[in-house]
Design brief:
Number of helices: 2
Number of domains: 1
CATH class: Alpha Beta
Radius of gyration: 12 Å
CATH architecture: 2-Layer Sandwich
Oligomer: single chain
Number of strands: 5
Strand content: 25-35%
Strand order of the largest sheet: 1-5-4-3-2
Distance between the termini: 33 Å
Length: 86
């Protein structure tokens, strides 16, 4: 069962500002996440002390929330590795 993907405005702006290669790689991983958030090929970890998860795509981190009851994934942030957890 596919999940509905919601991308917050801030994350969408970052995604649109990236070069084509990074944007396509991240978009592909987000699509896989929506198809199956438990996919073992995705590098996903829960964030400690927060209700969020992180998906690693090269030097980029996608921070998102997941609601399994209504099948929604809300992408909160797309940030470079160093500033993703602040």
């Amino acid at each position: 069962m596919r999940y509905i993907l919601l991308i917050k405005k801030q994350a969408k702006k970052v995604l649109q500002s990236l070069d084509r290669i990074d944007r396509n790689r991240i978009a592909e991983k987000i699509k896989l996440l929506g198809d199956n958030p438990d996919n073992p090929i995705l590098d996903i970890k829960p964030l400690q002390g927060q209700p969020y998860y992180r998906l690693r795509v090269g030097q980029w981190r996608i921070i998102y929330d997941r609601d399994d009851e209504v099948k929604i994934i809300a992408i909160a942030k797309i940030k470079p590795r160093g500033g993703a957890y602040k």
